[in-house]
Structures are given as structure tokens and as C-alpha cells.
Amino acid sequence: MNSRAAILTVCLFAIGLSGQPKSRLPQFGDYQTQDTFKGRLVVPLFNRPAEREYRTKIRQGVINGWGVTEAAAEDSRPGPNFAGHYLIIKWPCGSPCMMAAIVDATTGRIFPPPFHGAGDGYFWVPALWSFPAEGPPILDYRINSRLLIAEICEHPDERFGTYYFVMEDSGLRLIRTALRPSSR
To answer: Is the dihedral of CA 174, 147, 60, 110 positive or negative?
Structure first.
């Protein structure tokens, strides 16, 4: 192969690589937090009607740790479990669904999960609807990372898959989706 053909081959190869979509999915280590809140938890602020509707569940989560679990363990405990100073509080609403709230331990601000699902519940996390099997949604998170990975179905007929969110001061921001076809 002459040098001109070799250069052309290298250029075409480089152009082909540059047009490829990023295949690497977000990782917990990409969004690490350095500090973990260890002070006194602030009382949740119930500003919106939906927050007041679930005040008992949210308050029990902050004060007693009910529904505050590490993603890998099922042991409830008081204190932050997500992104350094947030508490993800989960409670059942029937099968296969879940309710959840995110509370900032330093300010008391309450964030609903940013999912829509087929229902209109403010704190409702949409069920998987047979993806990958019947059962509640799966939320994966870490105390030392701002990344939240949710395996959910945003609508019963479409948008099945894994959603990647990053926690910011204003709440969760969607950064990536890995959608799969509906099994229905």
C-alpha cells in the first residue's frame, strides 16, 4: 500500500470513528460527591399540596429512616443515602409501583421524582409494565454520587428503559436514556 492510500485509509477510519455515538453509559464515579452530610437533619418543608398529602411518609423517612435505604441494601436508617446530603425515601403504593420523594437534608426542600408514568401522582414512580419483568421500578443510587439510574416505564405503551439523572441544586436532570421496545 502506498503512503497516499495509507493516509486515505487512516482518514476514513478516523471519520468513521468520529461519527459513532458515545456508547459508554454514565457511571457513579463520573458524578462523585466529596462530602457526606453528618449534621442534624432539617425538618422537611411541605410547600405544595402533594407534599402535604404525603407528609407522614416523608417525615417518617427523614426522622426515623423509614423507606430510606441504600440502593444495594434494604436496611432502613435515618440520614442521607444519595448525593452526599439527600434522602431518597421510598414507600409502596401497590404492586408493581412505588412512591418516592427526595429530601435535601440541609434545607428541607422536597423534590418529587422526575418521572411521569401513566398516572398523575406527584410522587409516583412508574411501574415496569413487564420490563424486564413484572415488579416495582428499580432505582439505583449511591451516597457518594449524584447519579441516579432508574429502570422504569414512562408510559405503558412506550419509553421502556433505563434513565440516567444527575442531581443538581434544582433537582434531577435527565442526562441519558437507554430505551427498549415495549413487550406489550
So the answer is: negative
pLDDT band at 72 (very low <50, low <70, confident <90, very high): low
118 versus 117: the higher-pLDDT residue is 117
User: What 8-state DSSP symbol labels residue 4?
Assistant: H
All 3 cell numbers of residue 69? 435505604
Extents of the domains making up the chain = 36-180
Whether the link from the prior residue into 132 is cis, omega within 30° of 0, is yes
Q: Are 166 and 147 in contact (CB under 8 A)?
A: yes
Q: What is the dihedral of CA 141, 142, 146, 152, to 10 degrees?
A: 0
Question: pLDDT higher for 31 or 1?
Answer: 31
